[in-house]
Amino acid sequence: MIQAQSLTKHYGSKTAVDSVDFTVQPGKVTGFLGPNGAGKSTTMRMIVGLDRPSLGSVIVNGKPYHEHKAPLREVGVLLDAKAVHTGRSAYNHLRAMAATHNIPTSRVREVINLTGLESVARKRVGGFSLGMGQRLGIAAALLGDPATLILDEPVNGLDPEGVQWVRKLTKQLAAEGRTVLLSSHLMSEMALTADHIIVLGRGRVIADASVADIIASAAGESVRVRTPHTAALATLLAQENVTITNVEQDVLEITGLSVNEIGDRAAAAQISLHELSAVSASLEDAYMKLTQNEVEYRTGDSSSHTETEAAR
Amino acid sequence: MSTVTPTQPSTGRATFVSAGSGLSFTGLLKSESIKLWSLRSTYWTFSLVIVAALGLAVAMSFAMSTATAGFDPNTGAPMMGSSEQLFVLVSTTGLGLGQLIVAVLGVLSISGEYSSGMIKSTLTAVPNRLPALWAKVIVLFGYTFLVGLFSVIGSFLVAIPILGAKDISASLVDVAVLLPLLGNVLFLALIAVFAVGIGTIVRSSAGGIATVLGIILLLPTVVALFSIMVGWVADIMPFLFTAAGSEMITPNTMESWQAFLVVMAWVVVSLGTAALLLKRRDA
Question: Are A223 and A254 spatial neighbours (Cβ–Cβ below 8 Å)?
Answer without folding.
Answer: yes
